[in-house]
Amino acid sequence: MNSEPTPAGDSPFRSASEARDSAPQFVLPLVVRIERSAPPARTDALETSARAVLVILSDERSVGDGVWAQAMRDWQDARIRKVVRRARGAEWRRAQELPGITVTGKSAEVRVFPPVPLDGWPKELAKLQVSGTDLDDPEPPLAAGPGEPVLWLNPDLDMSAGKAMAQTGHAAQLAWWELPDAERDAWRAAGFPLAVRTADPARWQALTESGLPLVRDAGFTEIAPGSCTVVADHPALRRAPGA
Fold first, then answer.
1. N or C, where is the chain less crowded by C-beta within 10 Å?
2. pLDDT tens across 139-171, in order?
3. β-bridge partners, 116
4. What percent of the chain has pLDDT over 70?
5. CB atoms < 10 A from the CB of 54, how many?
6. Distance of alpha carbon 184 from the chain centroid
7. Among candidate residues 167, 231, 242, the one with its CA nearest the CA of residue 204
8. What is the pLDDT of residue 62?
9. pTM
10. Alpha-carbon span 188 to 54, nearest angstrom
11. SS3 sequence, the chain?
């Protein structure tokens, strides 16, 4: 589930080869709980994974002199990678014992962990499955609420749930980076409300040209390199016409 988000302008998410490619590579692990008898709804899992990324980015342990701060800096100094794995039963209980944060949605549970070296996963996480993570929505998602940030999925791409979870996490991170401090604080205080929806084709074209944060995939898994996967539509980032 590795990808490279690419916002406009200078960014550590740029896809061009540069010095950060030679830096030690780190990955942000996310584990979604998928019990055979009660799997989460797909959209809820995508939304919960996006919130999990925002929660760890804003956690006091991830900034300043926090215990996770150096790992977060090392991760962001290299290529930004996220990998989603799935767990159930005893696997999930073991994952809960490792340092991290569990974020709960309506039906989904996602645990996010501080970044680890690309080839240095904890054994409890390394054995978890990464491929084949797919989920369904029992009912079509309702329309997003007024003023609610929306992460819009490309309607032309067929991604597994695990892949899409990584992509929505990237999009949430781009929005977080571009927001002013006051808007970040307000979003965090509200509990990071957001919706994940699939855009209709006409809307998708307009979104990709809107100047909003746009994720382009690095092409490591499932889809072609450079594919546009998600647009992060946060109200505070919308450009006024002619701006």
1. C
2. 999 989 889 999 999 999 989 999 999 999 999
3. 27
4. 84
5. 22
6. 16
7. 231
8. 98
9. 0.88
10. 8
11. CCCEECCCCCCCCCCCCCHHHHCCCEEEEEEEECECCECCCHHHHHHHHHHHHHHHHHCHHHCCCCCCHHHHHHHHHCCCCEEEEEECHHHHHHHHCCCCEEEECCCCEEEECCCEECCCCCHHHHCCECCCCCCCCCCCCCCCCCCCCEEEECCCCCCCHHHHHHHHHHHHHHHHHHCCHHHHHHHHHCCCCCEEEECCHHHHHHHHCCCCCEEECCCCCCCCCCCEEEEEECHHHCCCCCC
Is the confidence at residue 3, as pLDDT, over 50? no
Beta-bridge partner residues of 117: 26
- Interatomic CA distance for residues 46 and 40, integer angstroms: 10
Q: Are β-strands 101-104 and 228-233 bridged in parallel, bridged antiparallel, or unpaired?
A: unpaired
45-73 confidence digits (pLDDT tens)? 999 999 999 999 999 999 999 999 999 99
- Class of residue 58 by CB neighbours under 10 A (exposed 0-12, middle 13-18, buried 19+): middle
Which two structure tokens, joined as six digits, stand for 137?
Answer: 């929505």
Nearest to 32, CA basis, from 41, 23, 21: 41
